[in-house]
Amino acid sequence: MKTLTTTAHLEADTTSRVSVFGPTSGDEGFVSLRVEGEFVELSLIARPGTVDALRALARAAEEAAAALDRIAETTPDGGA
Question: Which domain of life does the UniProt lineage start with (predicted)?
Answer without folding.
Answer: Bacteria
